[in-house]
Structures are given as C-alpha cells and as structure tokens.
Amino acid sequence: LADNRWPPLLRDAIAAAGRWGVPAVVDVEAPCEADALQGATHLAFSMQGLADFAPGLDRDNALRRAAGDYRCWVAVTDGAEGVWFTKGESIAHIPAFAVEAVDTLGAGDVWHGLFALRLAEGADERTAIRFANAGAALKCRTFGGVAGCPDRAATEAFLRESETCN
Questions:
Q1: For residue range 92-123, what is the model confidence (pLDDT) as tens digits?
Q2: Which of 111, 101, 83 is nearest to 140 (CA)?
C-alpha cells in the first residue's frame, strides 16, 4: 500500500510488490502523476484524484479509462456515498455504512489500510471493500485521528451487527 504523493517511492513500492508477488495497492489523490501508477494491481482513487486523472469525464468513464490505461482493478471512494469499482466492463457499487459522522479525518487512510490488509489475506475485492467500509464508518463515529481508529475486533463486530440488521 502506497499513496501517489511521492512518485519515486511509489514506483519503488509497486516494483517491490511485483517482485514479492503481492498486490500493489495505490491510494490515488490529486495531483496525479499518471506514469507513477504503472504496474499497480489496485488503484483506489479519491473523487478528487479521479477528477485530476481524467478531467471532464464522469465517474464511470473515468474508472473505465483508468482500468484500460493500467490494466488493473480500479475504484473510487466517495465517503458517505460508498465505493464504485470496475468489474470487467461494468461498474459496481458498494454503499457506505450509514453512521452519524463525528470526525472524518483519517477515514480514507483507515479505508485504504483495511482494504489492503484484506487483499493481502486473500479476500476478494468486494469482501475487502465491505471490511474497509466498516472500518472507515467506525472511524467516522469517533473523534480523534488515530485514537478514533477501530481495531479488527471492533470492525468485525460492526460487520456482524450490520448483517443482522439487514
């Protein structure tokens, strides 16, 4: 897992993931240096990052363009609106969990970390998104940066509770 803010380091991280045979997940924010994303297996854009990557394109076409350009799985996170991602030629959506947000600072970092964790553990992208959405929702319910970050047990309990409510 790396972000795109320091392109030389990102290139090294993607190359290392390739050598180790593990997913290369990139948290893509604006500004986006497109060359630095080459070789990633998973690109998870913010809405601002996606707009910077593909100015003038709507969300779905920008996702398709990124998937075509990089030949990898691509998503965009949009806070309370959830996550849209490529699934073959189509775009799929997983909604966010509805919570009363107290502090969203760090929620994206929690999301990316949990998404990468679940992929590394062998989960498919849909499962990883749902887990990451749960952790990010929990983060938003609690004030205080790192202090508000949920642990695995809390995230799994939240998922179980959410499943029994549906």
A1: 999 999 999 999 999 999 999 999 999 999 99
A2: 101
Q: What average pLDDT does this structure show over 46-53?
A: 96
CA 137 – CA 96 distance, rounded (Å): 7
| pLDDT score at 166 | 55
User: Mapped to the 3 state alphabet, what secondary structure does the chain carry?
Assistant: CEECCCHHHHHHHHHHHHHHCCCCEEEECCCCCHHHHCCCCEEEEEHHHHHHHCCCCCHHHHHHHHHHHHCCEEEEECHHHCEEEEECCEEEEECCCCCCCCCCCCHHHHHHHHHHHHHHCCCCHHHHHHHHHHHHHHHHHCCCHHHHCCCHHHHHHHHHHHHHHC
146-151's contacts with Cβ under 8 Å and 24+ in sequence apart are 146/106, 148/103, 148/106, 149/106, 149/110, 150/110
CA 92 to chain centre: 14
Look at residue 16 and tell me whether its pLDDT is greater than 60.
yes
The length of the chain in residues reads 166
